[in-house]
Amino acid sequence: MLAPVTTPDISAPAPASAPATSETILFEGHPATCPTIGAWVIVVLTLGLAWFVFLARSRSTRFKITTQRVVVETGLLSKRMDQLDVYRINDFVVERPFGQRLAGTGNLVLTAMDRTTPEMRLVGLGTDVVALYERLRTAAEEAKRARGVRVLDNELQPAR
Questions:
Q1: pTM of the model as a whole
Q2: What is the dihedral of CA 115, 21, 145, 116, to 10 degrees?
Q3: How open is the CA angle 71-76-80, to the nearest 5 degrees?
Q4: What value does the mean pLDDT take over residues 8-19?
Q5: Domains and CATH numbers, the chain
Q6: Cα separation of 40 and 120, whole Å?
Q7: pLDDT tens digits along 120-147
């Protein structure tokens, strides 16, 4: 007698050898239209006409920061997308000049082990950049740990 034929359950996920980490969005949006107090002064002096220029410049850039990658898309008509994997980030710099602190914006500069993008500047972020930095730094450490990446500092020691 023949054994009954069973079909595999397609709806059940296949077991993975390594646990998959979910990607969470930390920030998504455009830079602030008027990121500094100086920009606001220019808007007032030009009776609001400069605001349209600042708006076009702001809308030509889009940031998407997740726990796995940082994506910057630039351009109004022709688009360019630049991506940086979070586990490649070596150093973070938070810039909050006085004019940006008054406007509630800031910059985040990421230095990475990437040949095509050794430095990525996220300018005019209209969010709490310090909190974003903390979440992104934690995500980078977790991504490095999950991939087994270790960063060695090969700084030369002074001769004695």
A1: 0.80
A2: 0
A3: 35
A4: 47
A5: 25-147 (2.30.29)
A6: 26
A7: 999 999 999 999 999 999 999 999 999 9
